[in-house]
Amino acid sequence: MAPSADNINLVVSKNIKLERMFSMKGGKGEASYANNSQAQAQHARSMLHLLRETLDGVEINKVPCFVVVDLGCSCGSNTIYMIDVIVKHMIKRFEASGVEPPEFSAFFSDLPSNDFNTLFQLLPPLANHGGSSMEECLASDAHRSYFAAAVPGSFHRRLFPSASVDFFYSAFSLHWLSQVPESVMDKRSAAYNEGKVFIQGAKESTAVAYRKRWQSDLSDFLSSRKCEMRRGGSMFLVCLGRTSVNPTDQGGAGLLFGTHFQDAWNDLVLEGLISTEKRDSFNIPVYAPSLQDFKEVVEAEGSFAINKLEVFRGGSPLVVSQPEDANEVGRALANSCRSVCGVLVDAHIGESLSHDLFSRVQSRATASANQILEQLQFFHIVASLSFT
Prior knowledge:
Blueprint: H1 5-21, H2 38-46, H3 48-55, E1 65-71, H4 78-96, E2 103-110, H5 116-121, H6 134-139, E3 147-152, E4 165-171, H7 204-228, E5 229-241, H8 252-258, H9 260-270, H10 276-280, H11 291-301, E6 305-315, H12 326-349, H13 351-367, H14 369-375, E7 378-386
């Protein structure tokens, strides 16, 4: 049976709504992404050798401007640090090849609801190339050697002109789905995720729906990038991954969203603060793929050569100064969780109930602090792709 026009409009409106409202927690508060992304910084820096290997594969051509893009940049200082690493590495490569380094342009891209204001307040001033040597610019941490701009929009579709980008970088973003699969929230569907807000421990049919949505999203992402990338360019992609062949075992993401977070939702139901229907109509739009999931999509899309594709152990998403302090561990987990999905929770149940929810997450996490420190480990899929 073909979907009705009303159903199509409902699906479209839900997709648009998620894209317009979703973002990491903005600002500079305790639960903001800017103040809860230290672990991502550590994980990204531990992969710098892999990033530089990918950069070494980018073709050196005489171009007036070398264009770098961070897709899913969010609003913290991590993206600025990584763009600086990329630009400085490429300047040295141009010089080593005997080619005069071109000007550099960096585009920071995320959904329109992203807190670009906070991001650009962190941006160093542009170096004065007319009054400084390139060596002085490279040695200066207080200035940047590239022009900067923001590009709002979903990376699941086109964002840039054809053949205009030399290097795409995306870290800790591609595990986010463009939408929660409709079947997961449809009571008539076998994939209906009743009693849960994530796919950790869910039915196989629920996990299959998530997997199909993620693979479709990645295919759209790659198809868009092949139009935008110059020949000889490369991509360095990092997203949450899993080591289990079972997609209902989401590893670190499962522990973050499928235990204390899930239990906190159940607390609200048991206390009569929300209905079971309200809980079941909320699902975290995250899917941690396996290597095979990722490889299948890249090979099927066919535009990019795989230089490297591996699972990288990232470690804990929590950074605590006193691991023996259970309260600090509980607070860190609640803030980490809230920084990445708090906007969605606020929109679904309101800020007051959202505060109650994350207070319960913190209490539950505090009571299980030792277990969290021992078991909460993230694995990442790291992909180096070339466009030839």
